[in-house]
Amino acid sequence: MLLREVDRRIGLLNRLAGCFRDGRDAGRVQHSVREMLAQRVYGLALGYEDLNDHKQLRTDPMMSVLADKTEDRPLAGKSTLNRLELGGEAGDVDAY
Predict the structure, then answer these.
(1) Long-range contacts of 16-23 (CB under 8 A, 24+ apart)
(2) Which of 4, 51, 80, 89 has a C-alpha 20 to 30 A away from that of 39?
(3) How many domains does the chain have?
(4) Which residues lie closer than 8 Å to 73 by C-beta, 6 or more apart?
(5) Is the pLDDT score of 44 beyond 70?
(6) 2-10 and 33-45 are packed helices; what angle lies between their axes, rounded to 10 degrees?
(7) What whole-number distance in Å separates Cα of residue 45 and Cα of residue 16?
(8) Stretch 26-33: mean pLDDT, rounded?
(9) 3-state SS string for the chain
């Protein structure tokens, strides 16, 4: 929670999300770029460096709070986060 409060004050995740060009169809997007980045960054900060950990973390209530998830749905899965990390050109977010 402390890390989230620091981020809210300095706006790091919002600025980082602004570096991505989101080419996805807005009507089909389930997870915002900022939400996925928050999920990944907080997971790393908590010691979950492997994407496979997100299979369980995506339903963790505290992780949802950290990522500011508003809907009552799980966070992004490991495959979705992998596509974010390995996307096409630098800054692109496509096809998840």
Answers:
(1) 19/91, 20/91, 20/92, 20/93, 21/91, 21/92, 21/93, 22/93, 23/92, 23/93, 23/94
(2) 89
(3) 1
(4) 30
(5) yes
(6) 130
(7) 16
(8) 88
(9) CHHHHHHHHHCHHHHHHCCCEECCCHHHCCCCHHHHHHHHHHHHHCCCCCHHHHHHHCCCHHHHHHCCCCCCCCCCCHHHHHHHHCCCCCCEECCC
